[in-house]
Amino acid sequence: MKETMKKTAIFTDNLTKSFSRKEVIREFCLSVERGSIYGLLGKNGAGKTTLFKLLLGFLRPNSGIASVLGMDSLKDNCEILRHTGSLIGAPTFYEHLSAVENLRIHLAYMGLEDIEIDPMLKRVGLPAPGPQPVREFSLGMRQRLAIARAVIHRPEVLILDEPVNGLDPGGMRQMRMLFCQLAREEGVTILLSSHLLSEVGQVADRIGVIVDGRLALEMDTDKLREIHKDDMEDFLIEIMEGGERSDTSDYFRN
Ligand SMILES: Nc1ncnc2c1ncn2[C@@H]1O[C@H](COP(=O)(O)OP(=O)(O)OP(=O)(O)O)[C@@H](O)[C@H]1O
C-alpha cells in the first residue's frame, strides 16, 4: 500500500451516484487523514447522507471508488462496519428496552460483550438512565444514546450525520469534547456533517463544503479562519448556496 493511502482513513475518487437519473453525488473526491476530524457542510439535499451511505456500503455507486481503512465500501462492507461507528438519519432502537439493554445487544452483535457500558453512558451525558425504556427518551437522550452506540465498540472510524441534532448547548459541548478526545487521544478518524457552522468550526481540523453533490471547497479550519477572520460564516453560507464566491480552486491546495 502506498504511504499516502496508509495515512488516509476515508477515501473517494470520482464517486458518482444517481437516483432516477438525477446525479446527487458527482465525481466526488475526498481524502480524510487518519486521526483527524473532517467536517462536511452542505445545505439540505446537498448529498451528505448519500455520501455517508456510499462510504458504508449501504448504497451502490454508479461509478467511482469509495473506501474506508483501505477497504472497498461495497465488497468489504461487513469488515468496514466492524471497524466503524456510524449515525445516519434518525437512530432506531429496541424501543421497549432500556439504554443499557440496547447497548448490550449492540455489543453482543459485535462480539464484544466484555466492554463496560456505564462509563460510555456517562461520557455521553446519560449517567444513570436506569430501566426507563427508550420509547420514553427525549430527542436529546436518543441522540446521546445513538452516539454512545456508535462509539462503544471502539471503532477506528466514526461517520456521523448531524451528530449534535437535538442536543442542548451543554450536550453539544460534551460531544465536541468527546470527539476531540477520541481523535487526539485515541487516533479515531471522524467524518461528520452538520448544518451548524460554529460547531463544525470548533471541532473539525478540515472543512469541506458539498454543493449539489460536488465538493465545492475544502480547507484546513485554521487556514479558513485565518483568511476569513471576520466573515467565515457569511463566506461558507455563500459557498453552500452555490453563490458568486464559488470559484474556490485555491481552497483545495491548502
Ligand atoms: N433513496 C432515494 N431516492 C431518490 N432520491 C433520493 C434518495 N435518497 C436521497 N435522495 C435525494 O438525493 C439528494 C441528496 O439527499 P441527501 O439526503 O444525501 O442530502 P443531505 O445533504 O443529507 O440533506 P439534509 O441536510 O437535508 O439531510 C436529495 O435531492 C434527495 O431527495
Automatic annotation (TrEMBL):
TM annotation in the entry: none
PROSITE patterns, per database record: ABC_TRANSPORTER_1, ABC_TRANSPORTER_2
SUPFAM superfamilies on file: P-loop containing nucleoside triphosphate hydrolases
InterPro entries documented for this protein: AAA+_ATPase (IPR003593), ABC_transporter-like_ATP-bd (IPR003439), ABC_transporter-like_CS (IPR017871), P-loop_NTPase (IPR027417)
Sample GO molecular function, one term: ATP binding
Annotated SMART domains: AAA
Domain ABC transporter: 10-237
Keywords: ATP-binding, Nucleotide-binding, Transport
Similarity comment: Belongs to the ABC transporter superfamily.
Database matches in PANTHER family: ABC TRANSPORTER, ATP-BINDING PROTEIN (PTHR43335:SF4)
This protein's name: ABC-2 type transport system ATP-binding protein
Organism: Catenibacillus scindens
